[in-house]
Design a protein that fits this description.
The chain contains 29 helices and 14 strands. The chain is an alpha/beta fold and about 850 residues long.
Length: about 850
């Protein structure tokens, strides 16, 4: 810009656009990093995510309302913007240090129970509120650089779109490069550097741009009566609240359904968020174009909201009746996102119509909310109006992001939630359009105008009626999509015994013609009564209890699943109390009944207490310790699951063990790569250096999964003593349970031994250690989602197996028999 230009006379492609792109990019990197760090502390449950979103978006809403009113309009807006960006960068750098400290303080105070949610909210607010408020103020401050004219609003719409474009770049950069390649601190520092560059550029521009401070009482921030104004027209603000509500509500629903279809990897979530934001940015640019060319922005806002009701109905149809039936062969794809181009097309096919309309709505709402005719110095209150619209939109977004997963989906399912959103969009249109068609139809001045108003009113009523019909006919999600996920086009509709959509996950129970039952979570089988799964589940439970030298009195089971592992532990006669930690309440309450015979009806056992919480959060905040802990979490490629495989998590588990305690951990070999399995085992061995690995093969002898065992006291295993224990009368149920899955003797069970840390050292050498700082596993495992190399992974470990002379003890005949079992082929 030339020095003669004013801060308000800027072109649509001015440097301000690029400053906002950089600001949006840094903001999304921060959001992704901060959410990951805080989820390590407060957990990844739906309640925890709602708390995080509420704190972050609430801060942005408060900042957009409060900060612009406290910042004098006499100050150069670019200098204010530079100060905001510098402060955001300072917060980002400070939070790298402060977050772990606050996390430790939180976990030392939180003891679970109802007060836990309050403490989570308090921790989130302390950390996220200051930077979020600063981020929320950036757009209103930049709005001081444009006039309150259609051209000025159009430029503002482009700036808003540029900010969202930056968010898209930040989302993709963090999800596909920064976090997979570096760690959380490095990603934060990249965002801090970006803030510094943006702040320096804005400060430089401010020295070469003339700022004309406003005159009059309104310009003085010490006149709150003038600055405060009124929230008129109320219909516009109500509409933009509902627009934010439907936007975030739809994003929650579509993310859940599309993650079923693509596989719930971290790459999938990054892609869905990026495409959604891209649509918003493009829509904002379109909205900027429309503002320049319309004399009635409010009417266009109303028609956009009507369009949203049909876009939501279209998205509901596509996710339930369209995309799931596309014949996409996932087995042919070599990377995590299946075929990224195909998934991008499918994501845009669902989200683009709605995202465009939500993006269009913001600049139209800003234009419609501004007084007409404008005041003598209209640009003076531009930042206040923009702040109000932004805050109203963000407030609605908070409501949509919180109510949809916590209330609507558990009560009425995703199809019911989408019906609510369609009705909300129609209501938004009615609130926006009512004064227009009401006054038009009542105006007696001209017959033509009255006829036009009546025609518009009739069209609006018909369209709203159509939206209601569309809401009523929203289809349910196919049972096969919940059960098979990305494999649904090839597996088809299963014989479903139960399908449910809970707070945290969508689940199903199916039964095959031969009577085997499968338990599905979020598009994949997590447990079943098939031979290889029953063998693994019983192995995990009984090996855990038998490894405890005196017989465990207390046990913790992480992940309920079908309850088979928990049931296996519960029937050991020494068990006096057992805690089961499960994230999704529907699983123990409903699913357990379908597997009651296989799990010994463990959910109703009086010794058992079920805790509904994120396992990591429970491990951090629980005060009790256990003799044994067994963990059967969801597959590590599922977003968020990698937090249950970190070095720090295993250290927390070790700290919850009593002397002589035992921990076991399930490790999948299927849908995995050798690199990701090596990472899991190497990380576990960092905490339990003498830990051991035990294999579970399928009925054909192919590698299927494995169990890791760590003990606080690595004493030898007396094979004869183990056999004598299960031969006792009080262990008759245990013995029968083992025999049902092929473990007729203790020798059969111990023959599944695969190796120890000292033997597998060369195999895990150089493996990536999964830590809280990098969460490397979720990226390694996400790439391997389509792999089927379990046998190759198992055989690569078998090359290092040798009979452990110092681990197994017993009489010579017993050990000779065990050596012979070691030499047999890898078949059950």
């Amino acid at each position: 810009m030339k020095s003669s230009d004013t801060a308000r006379d800027v072109g649509p492609l001015s440097p301000l656009l690029f400053l906002l792109i950089g600001s949006g990019c840094a903001a999304l990197i921060y959001e992704i990093v901060w959410f990951q760090v805080l989820q390590l502390v407060i957990g990844a449950s739906a309640a925890s995510l709602a708390v995080l979103l509420g704190a972050f978006m609430g801060g942005m809403s408060a900042g957009s309302l409060w900060l612009p009113r406290r910042l004098s309009s006499a100050r150069h807006p670019l200098r204010v913007f530079a100060g905001l960006e510098a402060a955001i960068g300072a917060c980002g750098a400070l939070l790298i240090v402060i977050m772990p400290l606050v996390g430790r303080l939180y976990t030392s105070v939180d003891g679970g129970g109802p007060s836990s949610v309050v403490l989570r909210a308090l921790a989130s607010l302390v950390l996220l509120l200051p930077p979020a408020m600063l981020m929320g103020a950036t757009l209103p401050v930049i709005s001081r650089c444009v006039d309150a004219t259609p051209a000025g609003t159009a430029r503002l719409g482009l700036f808003y779109g540029g900010n969202i474009l930056g968010a898209v770049i930040g989302c993709l950069s963090a999800g596909f490069y920064l976090l997979p390649s570096f760690d959380l601190a490095s990603a934060s520092l990249a965002a801090v550097s970006l803030n510094a560059v943006v702040a320096a550029a804005a400060a430089f521009l401010s020295r070469h741009t003339v700022h004309l401070p406003p005159s009059g009482a309104f310009a003085d921030r010490n006149n709150p009566g003038e600055v405060r104004g009124s929230w008129e027209p109320r219909g516009v603000y109500a509409a933009i609240v509902l627009s934010g509500f439907t936007a975030l509500g739809a994003e929650v629903v579509w993310t859940r359904l599309l993650s079923l279809l693509f596989g719930a990897t971290t790459y999938t979530f990054s892609m869905i968020l990026a495409t959604f934001l891209a649509g918003l940015g493009a829509g904002s640019a379109i909205g900027a174009f429309l503002v320049r060319r319309t004399a009635d922005a409010r009417a266009l806002l109303g028609w956009a909201q009507i369009g949203l009701s049909f876009a939501l109905a279209y998205g509901a149809w596509m996710t339930a009746r369209g995309l799931p039936y596309w014949p996409i062969d996932t087995s042919l794809a070599p990377v995590a996102a299946l075929d990224p181009r195909t998934d991008l097309i499918r994501t845009f096919a669902v989200t683009l119509p709605g995202a465009l309309l939500w993006g269009i709505s913001f600049p139209l709402a800003v234009s419609a909310a501004f007084p007409s005719p404008p005041s003598l110095e209209p640009w003076q209150r531009r930042d206040v109006t923009v702040g109000r619209v932004y805050a109203a939109n963000t407030f609605g977004a908070i409501a949509g992001a919180v109510l949809t997963p916590l209330v609507f989906i558990p009560l009425v399912g995703t199809h019911g939630a989408q019906r609510i959103l369609i009705v909300a969009a129609s209501l938004s249109a009615a609130l926006t359009m009512r004064p227009l068609w009401a006054s038009s139809s009542a105006a007696p001045a001209r017959k033509a105008r009255r006829a036009s108003g009546l025609a518009a009113s009739a069209a609006l009523v018909l369209l709203m009626a159509g939206a209601v019909v569309a809401a009523v006919t929203v289809p349910r999600v196919p049972a096969g999509l919940v059960a098979w996920g990305r494999l649904f086009p090839w597996y088809g509709e299963p014989p479903a015994l139960y399908v449910g959509e809970g707070v945290n996950a969508s689940i199903a129970v199916t039964e095959e013609p031969n009577g085997w039952r499968n338990f599905h979570v979020s598009g994949k089988v997590e447990a079943s009564t098939e031979p290889q799964d029953m063998r693994l589940q019983r192995l995990l439970g009984h090996l855990t209890a038998l490894m405890h030298e005196r017989g465990p009195k207390s046990a913790l089971v992480v992940g309920f699943g079908a309850g088979v592992t928990a049931g296996a532990v519960s029937i050991h006669p020494s068990i006096e109390k057992m805690v089961i930690c499960e994230l999704e309440p529907l699983i123990p309450r409903v699913v357990s009944r379908y597997f009651a015979d296989a799990n010994y009806d463990v959910a109703t056992d009086l010794k058992v207490r079920i805790v509904y919480d994120d396992a990591r959060h429970y491990m951090l905040t629980a005060r009790e310790t256990f003799d044994v802990i067994t963990s059967d979490p969801i597959h590590p490629w599922v977003k968020g699951a990698a937090t249950l495989y970190t070095k720090e998590y295993f250290e927390h588990v070790r700290n919850r063990l009593n002397p002589g305690g035992v921990v076991t951990q399930w490790v999948p070999l299927y849908e995995s790569s050798e690199e990701s399995v090596r990472s899991v085992i190497a990380t576990f061995l960092q905490v339990f250096p003498d830990g051991s690995v035990w294999r579970n093969d399928d009925a054909s002898g192919l590698g299927y999964d494995a169990v890791l065992v760590g003990r606080t006291d690595e004493t030898p295993i007396d094979v004869d003593a183990w056999q004598a224990r299960i031969d006792r009368p009080d262990y008759e149920k245990v013995k029968h349970s083992l025999a049902e899955v092929g473990f007729e003797t203790i020798g059969d069970l111990l023959a599944t031994y695969l190796g120890r840390g000292r033997d597998l050292g060369p195999w895990v050498s150089g493996a990536a250690i999964n830590s809280d700082r990098n969460l490397r596993l979720q990226y390694l495992a996400g790439i391997a989602v389509n792999n089927n190399t379990g046998t190759r992974i198992r055989d690569s470990m078998l090359r290092f197996r040798r009979f452990p002379e110092d681990l197994f003890t017993g009489n010579p005949a017993t050990l000779a028999m065990l050596r012979e079992l070691f030499q047999q082929p890898a078949t059950p």
